[in-house]
Amino acid sequence: MDSSNTNKLKEEDSTYPVWHPYTQMKTAGPPLEILRGEGAWLMAKDGRRILDLISSWWVNLHGHAHPDIASRIADQAAKLEQVIFAGFTHSPAIELARALCEILPGKPEKIFYSENGSTAVEVGLKMAFQYWYNIGKPRKKILAFRSAYHGDTFGAMSVSSRSVFTQPFFQQLFEVVFLPDPTEEQLELSINLIDEASEDIAAFIYEPLVMGAAGMIAYSPAYLSALMQRVQSHQGLLIADEVMTGFGRLGTMFASEQMPIHPDMICLSKGLTGGFLPMGVTSARKKVYEAFHQDDRMKTFFHGHSYTANPLACTAALASLDCFKKENTLSRILQIELRHQAFVASLKAYDCVVSKRVKGSLLAITLTDGITREAQYLSDLGPVAYKWFMSRGLLLRPLGNVIYLLPPYCIKSSELDIAYEHIQEFLEILEKGDLEIFSVDPVFG
Ligand SMILES: Cc1ncc(COP(=O)(O)O)c(C=O)c1O
């Protein structure tokens, strides 16, 4: 690259040479440098304070730089920062696995650690395929919802929507039986698809009750349990992807608690460590584990990551679980839910609002941009709304034309009020069609 091009790049991005995720680097403005976080707030280098209303990509639970979690990590770092997890173990990993097995729906037998949400899903898919291989009845098919999002690695992309996220890789993705989205309520068609795949169903993977990246789409437990039951009638395994919904987001510790049937595997990440450190978990019930627990070495689960069960991450997760008890977090979430409901009820009818939903700490509003009434990630409204809220000190990162709040649970009533007032103001502007505010200068790609 010649020096003029290099200089141009440096102008575009003050953090050159960093390449940011989900960002069209050419059109995105320079990223905001954050120095510190406290509670629901992020403090930027330029002096601005930003209210983090999306828990920094759905990871933070109890507030930024929570002192209890930070000090527990520091203590652990001074004792043991990392050790190979094959042939070795440590007490944070054992304690955390024990704690998770106690609280996870369906009382799983084992906890398998990995490094993020996508790898938690990869592990779930690999375990499912190998379960069938190990018991000598190989099965090929995975079922998933058509607009699902399960992560960015190849297995996770395969079971995710064929969308803008996955388009360049269509040829490389494995085939999946896609069921109509649960909001379409096409039970008969879905049941037929399940029955067609019948003896070949390795597993059904789903985001229970809310499909996150698809646009915070909420759907009914009764519908999901009908599908789960049908999959079970063909002995297919059930994998709940609770990477987003886990740790209280939807009002209960895990969304699967709201279901009458429990999954065979549960994928966790994001809030697992309170948002402090990257870690993934895939739980397995006895039936799954037993297929691997054999004398034959070929039946080993040959999967592992260098940082599997990192002691600092396990300690952060244990500290976060302690916060749930000490800070009465589930009742805080209920208070947030009640505030969201009151806000939604107080909103007048706007033509620009297609639908609104509240579930636990989640509040989501689907807007129309004049072109679509469906959730569309590439709607121009997304970058415009993002920029509008950011210029007022609020971090809301819409999923296209869906704006939502998924705040840290420490958020105060007065801070929620700030968010609600601004959302209302934004809806008024949108309703009036005051489009001059919508400059085509997206902050993100
Ligand atoms: C439901 C779900 N599964 C998996 C993932 C992937 O997690 P990660 O970004 O940690 O790889 C996400 C991320 O948003 C998610 O929402």
Explain this structure.
This protein has 445 residues and is α/β, with parallel strands linked by helices. It folds into two domains: 32-62 and 328-437, Aspartate Aminotransferase, domain 1 (Alpha-Beta Complex); 67-326, 3-Layer(aba) Sandwich (Aspartate Aminotransferase, domain 2), CATH 3.40.640. The protein has helices at 3-12, 55-58, 67-79, 91-103, 117-134, 154-158, 187-197, 221-233, 286-292, 311-326, 329-346, 381-390, 413-432; strands spanning 34-38, 41-44, 49-52, 110-114, 141-145, 177-179, 201-206, 210-211, 217-218, 237-241, 265-268, 280-284, 353-359, 362-367, 394-395, 402-405. The strands form four sheets. It has a seven-stranded mixed beta sheet, sandwiched between helices. A four-stranded mixed beta sheet has the order 1-2-3-15. Helix 3 packs antiparallel against helix 10 (311-326) and helix 4 (91-103) packs across helix 10. Bound molecules: pyridoxal-5'-phosphate. Pyridoxal-5'-phosphate is lined by residues 116-118, 121, 149-151, 207, 212-213, 241, 243-244, 269.
Descriptive key words:
16 strands; Aspartate Aminotransferase, domain 2; seven-stranded mixed β-sheet; alpha/beta; 13 helices; 445 residues; 36% helix; four-stranded mixed β-sheet; binds pyridoxal-5'-phosphate; Aspartate Aminotransferase, domain 1; disordered C terminus; 16% strand
Question: Could you give the topology of this structure?
Answer:
Elements: H1 3-12, E1 34-38, E2 41-44, E3 49-52, H2 55-58, H3 67-79, H4 91-103, E4 110-114, H5 117-134, E5 141-145, H6 154-158, E6 177-179, H7 187-197, E7 201-206, E8 210-211, E9 217-218, H8 221-233, E10 237-241, E11 265-268, E12 280-284, H9 286-292, H10 311-326, H11 329-346, E13 353-359, E14 362-367, H12 381-390, E15 394-395, E16 402-405, H13 413-432
Parallel strand pairs: 3-15, 5-6, 5-7, 7-10, 10-11
Antiparallel strand pairs: 1-2, 2-3, 4-12, 8-9, 11-12, 13-14, 14-16
Bound molecules: pyridoxal-5'-phosphate.
Pyridoxal-5'-phosphate binds next to helix 5.
